[in-house]
Amino acid sequence: MGVLRYVAKRLGLYLAVLFIGLTITFMLPRLMPINPVDGYIGQLQSRANGTLTSEAIAEMRTNLEQLYGLNGDIFTQYVSYLKRVVLQFDFGPSFTYYPQPVSAMILNALPWTLGLLLTATFIAWVLGNMVGLVAGYFHKKRAASVLEFLGILLYPIPYYILAVTVLLLLAYIFPIFPLSPTFPVGQMTPEKIGMIFYNSLLPGITLVLAGFGWNILSMKALAVATTEEPYVTYARLKGASNWTRMTRYVFRNALLPQVTALALSLGMVFNGALLTEMIFSYPGIGLIMRTAATGGDYNVLYGAITLSIIAVATAGLVIDLIYPLLDPRIRHK
Amino acid sequence: MSMSKDVDPIVLAVPAGPIAKSRRRGSLVWLFNPRLSIGLVILVVMGLGSMILPWFAPVDPSIQASYMRNLPVSGVHWLGTNSLGQDIFWFLVFAIRNSLALGVLVAVGVTLIATIVGLSAGYIGGRFERVVMLIVDTFITIPLLPILIILGALIRGNTSFFTVGLIIIIFGWAWDARTVRSMALSLREREFINMARFSGANTLQIITREIFPYVSAYMVVGFINVVLFAINTEATLAVIGLSKVEVPTLGSIIFWALNYNALFTGQYVWLVAPIVATVTLFLGLFLTSTGFNQAFASKRGVS
């Protein structure tokens, strides 16, 4: 019954994360000193040079409050908010691109973010774990510490510094890539796809570099510890080759904590991806968020953040549900 | 290696160090391994430099149009001036000072909250622990940047540099609380805790007198990691223009450089200087934290 209990526990955490996450997003604007409706009316007023009559403003306020579910007491608002977000994935129209619905904008941007993020995370994870495994397994050799040094150098560097450095090096000093990349939209032709791929390389490289250092360091530490285990010594005495011991004995066992660590660090990886998109003007969720934040487009912001919470929580859930397949101890408990 | 869920990347990232050979009582020689020494030297130089130098600044570098714009590197302006007429060298010095100050302030707050939450959850246990850990796990899972972006968009213009620090504390304590709690868990089962209990010590006494001394070494490491995290988070917000960008920080300097297209106009010093400073500072902080960890690990004989 080990698996069932494990799954039930994990599902419980998932629901709790969604619930608390959505509650935070619901409460944030209501705890703020600024009312988004006031802000929006103020914007319109200044655009119309103050020619709006007070009746028109009052009418607009009722409309907006209805639109954003600001009627009734806070509990009614909360219930209708959850119903709208969870059941219908409806965040109303965008302020800036009225009347385009927020959900459509976000769903358009989602494949961009997922494509970049998944590819980069996968490459960084595989490369980092391979380098970390070698560095950890041969940790008594001098050459291995060079590999570890690479990890130490890369790990503490923040995403934005990596992004700006990559831009500086590969677009300014060695002008291989354009300084301001363009991402064509509309009907896809082979030429356009090639251009998108080419221009996605810079943000991709940034994300791979950022994930690389962390994976090297943690895999190295795990591999060092695993190499000392008695079963590895037993394998050596049994006559298993270096390669067999490294891949079948050390790697398989060191991999498990790495999978859990990946699930736990997803939030951070996602943050980094958002930031990278903003710096490289890559048309994903991150760029939408930035434009919405600077333009005061609150509906879009709420849609994007809700989607972020759901996406990260779900990805974590999926990884944790795959875990029993890799770890026989949970399966057979 | 335990296969528990409490995988802390920083703790994991620390390889086992060699056991110090000469361990004279009262001597602190065991503490100084190469990593820690290099890290501390970087931190002391940058910390003291950024605290002392501002006294000699000719003008407040956050004031715009103090000098001619876009001056090249010269004896008067060591790193030139930027497109806002500010001296890049002095802006950078103030940026390092402000970022470090914010980092330390946030780290104090986070360590305080994380220690209280983690220790009480780990020690009291039961239903209380389950509820607390659920909240902690939620805070870890929720992506922080989107929430900070919304907050930044909502309070922009009405915020102070101090508020930014406060927000980072509110959303940044969970990781540390998790680490502290898993340490408290492993300590709870130790013999000397039972001994104290049987001797009639109450919960508060056990937490403060028996558990705290053991946890304090990790707290030094955790503290430095939070400094890293806080500087990084504020800088991230600043780079996208959602912090108090008028205040010089390691992020706001890059925000202005990107905003004025420093790369298109060829003012690469404006970007390279903060990059070099940030990488050096972060490397210093990281080496110090892992160096400490290494030293404590070899002292405890865990390696």
TrEMBL record, chain A:
User: What name does UniProt use for this protein?
Assistant: ABC transmembrane type-1 domain-containing protein
PANTHER family for this protein: DIPEPTIDE TRANSPORT SYSTEM PERMEASE PROTEIN DPPB-RELATED
Query: Which Gene Ontology BP terms does the record give?
Result: transmembrane transport
Sorted alphabetically, the Gene Ontology cellular component annotations on this record are: plasma membrane
Q: SUPFAM superfamilies in the record, alphabetically?
A: MetI-like
Q: Write out the entry's keywords from A to Z.
A: Cell membrane, Membrane, Transmembrane, Transmembrane helix, Transport
The membrane spanning regions, by residue number, are 12-32, 112-138, 150-175, 195-217, 255-280, 300-323
User: InterPro entries recorded for this chain?
Assistant: MetI-like (IPR000515), MetI-like_sf (IPR035906)
Q: Gene3D superfamilies attached here?
A: MetI-like
* Cellular compartment(s): Cell membrane
What's its membrane topology?
A: Multi-pass membrane protein
Per the UniProt entry, what species is this protein from, by scientific name?
A: Devosia soli
Has UniProt tagged this entry with the keyword Transferase? no
Which family does the similarity line name? Belongs to the binding-protein-dependent transport system permease family.
This protein's major location comes to membrane
Q: Which residues form the ABC transmembrane type-1 domain?
A: 110-323
